[in-house]
Amino acid sequence: MELLQKMVSDMxxxxxxxxxxxxxxxxxxxxxxxxxxxxxxxVFEGIRCYQAxxxxxxxxxxxxDHLDRLEESCKLIGFKMPVSKRILISNFxxxxxxxxxTSDVAVRLTIFSDGSGxxxxxxxxxxxxxxxxxxxxxxxxxxxxxxxxxxxxxxxxNVLPPRAKIGANYINGRFAHMAAIxxxxxxxxxxxxxxxVSEGPGSCIFxxxxxxxxxxxxxxxxxxxITRDTILNYAPSLGLEVEEKPIDRTELYLADEVFMCGTAxxxxxxxxxxxxxxxxxxxxxxxxxxxxxxxxxxIGEISNxxxxxxxxx
Length: 313
Ligand code: PMP
Prior knowledge:
Layout: H1 2-12, E1 15-18, E2 21-24, H2 35-39, E3 42-52, E4 57-61, H3 63-77, H4 85-98, E5 105-113, E6 125-133, E7 145-153, H5 170-182, E8 187-191, E9 197-199, E10 204-209, E11 212-215, H6 226-234, E12 241-244, H7 249-253, E13 257-262, E14 266-273, E15 276-277, H8 285-297, E16 309-311
Parallel strand pairs: 7-8, 7-14, 11-12
Antiparallel strand pairs: 1-2, 1-6, 3-4, 3-5, 4-16, 5-6, 8-9, 10-11, 10-13, 13-14, 14-15
The chain binds 4'-deoxy-4'-aminopyridoxal-5'-phosphate.
C-alpha cells in the first residue's frame, strides 16, 4: 500500500514547465479566481512522444500540427499566443528531457487565463507543459469497448465551437461520459445538432463497411483530429477506401467495424453500440491492422511519414 501511494505521489510529481519555471506538478499553482479555474478558460493540446530504437530516441508525433491547432484555438477564443512556437518547442523538449522518462510520454500543453479574471479576460495569459509517462496501446491485449449513443447532444459551432480545443468544451463530454458509465457502457458517442454522428468526448469515430472506412466530415461538430487525419492518410495503403460523410446512428449499428481515435485513444475498437453487436462483436482485423501501422508510423518505421516526427532533443 505504501509503495502504491509512493508511486502515485511520484507520478503526481513529474516536473512541469509553468510560467518559465520548472516545478514539481504539485507546486504548479493557478489563481483560484482565474478564468481558467472559474470557467475552464484555456486552450490546450495533448501530444504523444514515442520511444524508438530501443528507447534511445523519442519522437513527438505531429508536433507542428498540434501547435498550428493550438494557434487556431487561441485565435478563436481571443488569446494572443504568449510565446512563439519556436520557444514552445524548445521548452517542450527541455521539460521532457528533464523528467528522464523511461517510456513513451503524453504531454499536456495548455495556454490559460491566469490571474484574477472573468470569462471575457484576454490577459494575463500563461502556459504550462506537463509530460507524464504513458505507454502505447498493447496490441496483444487489445480489447473491444461498449458504447452507447448519448442523449446529450454535441456542442456545435454556434454554441461552443468543437473545432477549438477549449477546456470548457469538455464539460459537454463529461455529461455524456457520466451517463454512459451509469448506463453500464464504457463510452458515449455523441450526435450533433443535425442528429447525425459527431464524435466521442475525447476522440473521433470511424466505421468500416465493406472495406470502406467512413468518418463524419469536419463540419459534423467534431474536433479536427490529428489522428483522424493521420488515419485518412495511410488507410488507403492498407487497401481501404476512405470517405468523409454524415453517418446515421443505425449505420454504426450495421457497420462491420467501429473504432474511436485520438492522440490518447490511439485506435480504440468499439465492439457493441446500444447492445447491438458490431460485426461479430470482436476486435476486427482492419482495426487491428490500422493500429499496427499507426505504431510503425509514430516511431519512424515508415519513411513516407517520417516528416510527421520531431526528435525530442
Ligand atoms: N475529439 C475530441 C473532443 C478530443 O478531445 C480529441 C483529443 N484531442 C480528439 C477528438 C482527437 O484529436 P487528436 O487526434 O488530435 O488527438
